[in-house]
Amino acid sequence: MHDLEFVQRCIKGDKLAWSEFIDRYSRLVYNYIHGVLRAQGATPASGTHVEDIFQEIFLSLIKDNCKKLRAYKGKNGCSLASWLRIVVINATIDYLRKQKPSVSIDEEKEEGKALIDTLSAIGPGAQELLLRQEQLKGLHRCIDKLNSEEKHFLELHLHCGLHLEKIKEVFGISRGAVDMRKARIVDKLKSCFKKQGFELDF
């Protein structure tokens, strides 16, 4: 059954479809949550509640007459699994932000010592980690500036691991056009990243 047809059955309240949805995607959602937590340097043992995130995600799909689930359209060959991955990433990061307010690297602590000074005292490893985190944030800001089609291209190619030959079929364009589109996206990201003081290598 096509993903979009399957989603429509869920939206209409088909109990068998929802049961299949949970069976099919529960493990996938759990794995994605753990993946995002690891990428963010958080683990369930450190106080992050995977079950809470899991429940929030599924509740968000069904509340308000399945408003979020209705957003899935399966455009350009985007699978339901790929779409759920984006939902999980956003939900997990939002959860972490609520649990742990961000701290400015220049914010003075009670001892009158800025966090950046503390990191410097710890050693170059901590400074390198901070730099990588800032670079990652910068890259996310640059990706946010891409249009929806460019973001989808990145999702298929980088996140889903789709080969460029397959992407040309998804978008219905020639391989040459795919290469040009990729080069244009890379140039945009490099230019944006450079303006933030970083170099981006592909």
- Silhouette: globular
Q: Which series of helices and strands comes N to C?
A: HHHHHHHHH
Strands, total number: 0
Percent range of helical residues: over 70%
Unreliable spans:
102-116, 118-124
From the 3D structure, determine the CATH topology of the largest domain: Rna Polymerase Sigma Factor, Chain: A
CATH arch. level architecture of the largest domain: Orthogonal Bundle
Q: CATH superfamily name of the largest domain?
A: RNA polymerase sigma factor, region 2, helix turn helix motif
Distance between the termini: 37 Å
- CATH uppermost class of the largest domain: Mainly Alpha
Count of all domains = 2
Helical stretch count?
9
What is the strand content?
Answer: under 5%
The Cα radius of gyration reads 20 Å
* Class by SSE composition: mainly alpha
Describe the biggest sheet? none
- Average residue pLDDT: 76
Produce the secondary structure layout.
Elements: H1 3-11, H2 15-39, H3 50-70, H4 80-99, H5 115-122, H6 124-144, H7 148-159, H8 164-171, H9 175-195
Helix pairs in contact: 1-2, 2-4, 3-4, 5-6, 6-9, 8-9
Question: Can you describe what's shown?
Answer:
- The protein is an all-alpha fold.
- The protein has 2 domains: 102 residues, RNA polymerase sigma factor, region 2, helix turn helix motif (Rna Polymerase Sigma Factor, Chain: A); 81 residues, Arc Repressor Mutant, subunit A.
- The chain is 72% helix and 0% strand.
- It contains 9 helices and no strands.
- The longest helix is centred in the N-terminal third of the chain and has 25 residues.
- About 11% of the residues have low confidence.
